[in-house]
Amino acid sequence: MPEYWDPEIETMPVDDLKKLQEEKLKKLVHYVYENSPFYRKRFDEHGVHPEDIQTLEDIRKLPFTYKQDLRDTYPTGMFCVPNSKLARFHASSGTTGKPTVVGYTHKDIDDWAESLARAFTSVGMGKDDILQVSYGYGLFTGGLGAHYGSEKLGATVLPTSSGNTERQLELMKDLGTTAIACTPSYFLYMIETARKEGTSIRDDTKLKKGFFGAEPWSEELKKRIEDESGIKAYDIYGTSELSGPLFTECDEQCGIHIWGDLFLIEILDPETGETMPDGETGELVITTLAKEANPLIRYKIKDLTKKLSEPCKCGRTHPRITRISGRSDDMIIVRGINVFPGQVESVLMNIPEVGNHFMIIVDRIGPLDSMKVQIEMHESAFSDRMSDMMALKKKVANALKSVLNLAVEVELVEHGSLPRSEGKSKKVIDNRKL
Ligand SMILES: [Zn+2]
What we know:
By secondary structure, this protein is of the alpha/beta class. It is built from twelve helices and 21 strands. The longest helix has 22 residues, at 14-35. It is globular and about 70 Å long.
């Protein structure tokens, strides 16, 4: 029998869930219109009034919101509550310009923890588990998000935050960590660090599950993580604008469950804005149905994914999304061809001789764009014979060319020379922007 955190909500009939979403949406539009000058203005400019929203389909009448709106109204111009009702702030790093600030009431924090408690339960976590939270704690939402979700579940939290990897591994062994939450690139670094110490996560720890997210990653990398560590790897999803990490796959591993009583998702054609049919890739647009401090309406998150509406084998009726295939923001255009770092990762991780780390370097030489991929040789395939190295470079270049339709220079660099990451990894250096 599958176990649920909140069986009544998680397995409610689809029609009842839709009815609940409709009620919440109707309330939400009145709430933001009355409490946020930003939303009132945005609705008025689009000639839409809360009374116009009577059914779920009416959501299409509402204007979108964007990350730029959060920047333009920095720090709290989109909020619907006064400071006295706020329990916490988080802020995202401002890689381009101002950071974005998100506020939480006590109920918002509780809903956030609730969402993850349901998710952790769906992969069989419980009170006996010890979750090592190796996401950064602080303004970044990963650490505290996983922390509160795990505490709500009743599991034991080991709040290591990121960094100090030898110590992390020592605590993992000594305290019997059973699950970990971090970026996939940091976990790769942990695997490598353990190996250097002459130990292994598979044989010397009790680790069984990992929740990996905060950066896009591929099925191929998931497989590699599982092969090298012996654990089961789950996708965890969310962004700071929505609260933080919120959703995971269940044990069926056929998509990430998005709790429909808390969030309403649409998958739209990025060009036409039309709703994409189930199972077809489009842009994810999310409306927060329960947030009090700063609700988001039709927020264009820029992640590309597919929606699966069929109830899952696990019995949960809430819609699922497939692994994020990329962010429309991450796309690089090289000689007119769209390239996603995730595509490159998929190709590389499918070649056993290629190491776990890579870097894409884009340049412009004269009028022409050029793309180079730096790789290391995998430890298990290590060779310093020139002929082996040449053969690998050729193999990788051919594989990349067949997927990207682009000639890519492959450079084999010394093992350990590519940057390792303790948080979100940087996989692209675009010298054209400098
Ligand atoms: Zn499921």
